[in-house]
Amino acid sequence: MSIWSRISAAVSALSQGEPLSAVFAHLRTPPERSIAFTIAVIALGAKMAKADGQVTRDEVMAFREVFQIAQEDEAGAARVFNLARQDVAGFEDYATRVREMFGKGHEALADLLEGLFHIAVADGMYHPNEDEFLQSVADIFGLGEREFRQIRSRFVPEAEADPYSVLGVSPEASMADVRKAWRAHVQESHPDRLVARGLPQEAVKMAEKRMVAINRAWKEIKDARG
């Protein structure tokens, strides 16, 4: 049975009324943990895409950019996405289960939030309902307001995106501290480290946008400070 068939079966069980806890109980240990993470990304991504009242083709394509789906698995993946996007209700349960899976404030939760932002802005708009949805997910994940704004600044054109916010440092920070923050972000975004966190290979693609923003912020600060 392919991973998408197993994911589809799990989400189908949820849609038929099986308790979320019962489904996730079977997906807590490697390699099942990666499957559980994938289910969460699909469910939260689909529900978040629906938060603005519609699911666009661009949002579906954004999901496909993150998850490289084999041709033979496309039907199963589409079924999972369609099951999960039926409405926005219930996303809190998924977010809570994922938090319990990784632990409050775990680095993987920030990775997942980035994936949700990637889908949110895919249609060229960032709806207030999407912002409210993502803020709620971030709160459940145990991510602070500063981290939420830092991630948002990398994806939302209208958000404040100064290089210091991207690196999570104060404009008054010394160059040594800025460099330290930049190096830490680069190390945290390394593919090997992401895999070690328990993320499936597909989710590692989410880090590409982050690395571009991190390196651009570092260059801007260096150029500004001479």
Task: Please state the structural category.
Answer: mainly alpha
Number of helices, where a helix is a run of at least 4 consecutive DSSP H or I residues: 13
Number of DSSP strands? 0
Mean pLDDT: 77
Please bin the fraction of helical residues: 55-70%
Distance from N terminus to C terminus (CA atoms, Å) equals 57 Å
Provide the succession of SSEs.
Answer: HHHHHHHHHHHHH
Shape: globular
Work out the count of structural domains.
1
- Sheet-strand content, in percent, reads under 5%
Q: Using only CA atoms, what is the Rg? A: 18 Å
Spans of at least 5 consecutive residues whose pLDDT stays below 50 are none
Q: What characterizes the major β-sheet?
A: none
Write the SSE topology.
Layout (H helix, E strand, L loop, with lengths): L2 H13 L4 H6 L6 H19 L6 H10 L7 H11 L6 H12 L4 H14 L7 H14 L3 H11 L7 H5 L7 H14 L2 H6 L10 H19 L1
Helix pairs in contact: 1-3, 1-5, 3-5, 3-6, 3-7, 4-7, 6-8, 7-8, 7-9, 11-13
Report on this model:
It is a single chain. The chain is mainly α and 226 residues long. The protein has one domain. It has 13 helices and no strands. The chain starts with a helix and ends with a helix.
